[in-house]
Amino acid sequence: MTGWLPVLAVVLLFGPGSARADIDESAYDAGGVITDARERERIQARIAAEVEAERRREAERAESEGRAREAAAAREAARPYPERLTTQRCTACHPDTRYTAEAHTPLGWRLVVERMVRLNGAQIPRGERPVIAAYLAEAHPAGTRERVIEYGLPPIGLAAVAGLALAARRRYARRPHFKE
To answer: At residue 28, does pLDDT exceed 90?
Structure first.
């Protein structure tokens, strides 16, 4: 059973599917050994210059990135507090395009924020909820259709429920009641 292992090794190493480099050993030749002291110093100086140039490029890159971070922080600080708070809290769960595409009344935005907290588990402290809802109502106000839906349908729904309750009470009152 072990006699086939050497055959398999030979086939894998030298068979038709073996991986061989397309270059010969001369490609690895660095040009010979440097024996001249001047040539060695020249090469070392060139290497040192390249290392120094790379260090300078890296320092410039780091400085540029630092300036970019400072500029971004300044832009963020210049935004109004409600806008920053809304972005911070809402984009923790979803992209800002999720709420910027919507339009609600102040009541509708308050309900959206409460839904996010109570049903979706959003971490928004109680004191920040009205600030976020007010900002969203100002930044993404409701149109006429949304106003009718959010302010008109709840009273109609309450009236319907009250009417059904009154009808059920009258129906119950007409039934005979037996006392024992």
So the answer is: no
Give pairs for 61-64: CB < 8 Å, separation 24+.
none
Residues in Cβ contact with 89 at an 8 Å cutoff, skipping those fewer than 6 apart: 122, 123, 124, 128, 132
For the chain, percent helix, then strand, then coil, each to nearest 5?
70, 0, 25
- Letter for the amino acid at 11? V
Half-sphere exposure of 178 (CA within 13 A, CB side): 1
Q: 2-6, 41-45, 94-98, 112-116 — which is least confidently predicted?
A: 2-6
Are 136 and 86 in contact by the 8 Å Cβ rule? The answer is: yes
> Six-digit token pair at 64?
């540029």
**pLDDT above 70 covers what percent of the chain?**
83
125-131 contacts, C-beta under 8 A, 24 or more apart: 128/85, 128/89, 131/81, 131/82, 131/85
How far apart CA 130 and CA 113 sit, in angstroms, is 9
Please choose, from the candidates 43, 19, 45, the residue with its C-alpha nearest in 3D space to the C-alpha of residue 33: 43
* Residues listed for the chain: 180
Q: What is the pLDDT of residues 85-117, one digit of tens each?
A: 999 999 998 998 988 889 999 999 999 999 999
- For 174, the token pair is 């007409």
